[in-house]
Amino acid sequence: MKSLLKYEKQLDEAKSWYLVVFTSFLLLSRMVCFVQLVSNRVNGLGYIAGAAAGGLLCLAELLVHYRRYLKKEYYLLAFFMVACLISSVIFRDYGISENLKALVWMGLQLLLFTSMIPGRDGDSVVCGRRGLKRMMNSLLVIHGAAVLISIGQFLVQSRYIVPDYNDTYDKRQGFFDERLFGIFTDPNYAAVASLLMIVFSLILIQLYKEKKGLKAWYTASAILHSIYIVLSGSRTAMVAFLVVIPVLGYFMWRNSRIDRGEKWHLSGVLAAVGIFAASFLYFNLSSYAFAGLADVTVHVRPYIGLCEYSPEEGISLEREDTGEDISNNRIAIWTSALSLWRDHPVTGLSPRNMVSYALRERPDSYIAKTGYQPHNGYVALLVGCGILGAAPIILLAGIFVFNLCKYLKRYKGKKIEYELLLGMASMMTVGISAVFLLEIFFTVTITITTVLFWFFSGVAFWHLGADRDS
Length: 470
What we know:
mainly alpha, globular, single chain, 3 strands
């Protein structure tokens, strides 16, 4: 028994460090300079190594902690994977390799990351608070450094093109088209990651509230990432911010008032409304202030080895690339994708075959003409595996809401654990961004935001009681 307990602790520690290393790698892989430095081949090997190591840990997890998976939540996830496999087999003639990759990464995330739920001291239920803090601090340092460099590019109006990035197309870097791409592959994903970093910072401020130095560091981190969200021009991240931060603020206010034995119902609502209003004003007014600041700081270019900057017009953060379509063609993409789904509503078109199916069967469709992916995680789910695969995910979401309602009723008038708030806020961040981006399901490649969604879904489920009987 003692040897088994020792083995379980070693496995949990190995998974904790795997989480730190692999999520850090995924974060770095969203930075063009990192991929260019290590080469695309080495970067690809990193994904293979991550999958192999994760697969071994999955196998060890299933052998040692198999009882954790004998519950309805994992049965639903298993049914979802079977639905994806069925769809992949049916539509194998349209392509099979990308579907297999998608299934491998999805299986890894569902089995491994959702099992890495934080237990309490003395538990063998993985990682614990120390492992959770270790991961968050690692990501805060890495993404914070990248954001700091990117903001520096904005202040001196640095911009350049990386030709044939990943042997595909030219990649913009620095400040282009009224948006700060920075050193990231995509400003939308970088901005969503920044919102996750703000959530981490706010939670860590509460966990380290007795340490003034750390509180100052996390506060500065939250401010830094909020600046990047504005400069990125990501409306996706801004919408998610306007929902997530007021909700998180409400519960954090609730906890603080309960600590002091004070009423919190009305004041909590007012605090959330105030946070929303302040955030809305910040996003609408700060862009002018940041543009004005760059108009001044850009004059240091000659002193750092850059040519003088003399734009015909002043620096602006007002995007002009969306034209007359406020959705930036997303509505047309979603409509076309759903029209393809209606051809096979039960099984869908398989996780990664939508475009190839459109090219062969519906060449006049918008998807066939543009080659666009769904740009919506939920549309991708429905098109990729149909009603057969969407049903278990909808049921899983229903179970989560039911457990949350039970938890709030059980803890009425009591503090809510900060790890649960962390899990809920992180899920909300990625879940809202999935309305506008290809997140959560069937992404082109595994992303840091998708991994964190499934990891924190495990955190939230465990704290709601779904996993306490493991």
